[in-house]
Structure of Shikimate kinase:
Amino acid sequence: MPLKKNANIILIGPMGAGKTTVGKQLAMRLGKTFCDVDQELEKRTGVPVNLIFDIEKEAGFRLRETAMLTELLQRENCIIATGGGVVVTDENRQLLAQTPHTVVYLKTAVKHQLKRLKRDKQRPLLQGAGRRERLMKLAKERNPLYESVADLSFASGRNSAYGMAQKIADYL
Ligand code: S3P
């Protein structure tokens, strides 16, 4: 699929899909700039995402996420990694569905998410016990939403970030 010269690629998918690691490698391969909605939010606010969740609750975080996504979509020639919950609000889904840029869904099974997130202690939606059940519930709710806004999807499976970036770059 020929990609327009300054096109952005927006990576969506659940926590532990590898959006950030794949995004960085894809940016290198395609000569684009990498940016990440959560990282930009942390830079702007000076606090980690989990603290934003603590103080402003998920609703406050989602408002900030929409504003940041809107801003990043105005840039050119970027790979934009989003947070796993970017598809839960109507506003964000509209932004993603209407953008002229390419939205790529990194499809991931819960067993692979669990492996990749094994050492993670930060993610606010994964605090406490029952990770597998929580991830399964989120997948059930959100997978159709990712599908609804994606232009392309790639199953990450057991592929490394390197392999995924190669697969996506070859296709594009
Ligand atoms: C979230 C995923 C996180 C982060 C926040 C909420 C979610 O991003 O945006 O903790 O709702 O799934 P990653 O997908 O990069 O973990």
The chain has seven helices and five strands. The chain has one domain: 9-166. The domain at 9-166 is CATH 3.40.50.300 (Rossmann fold).
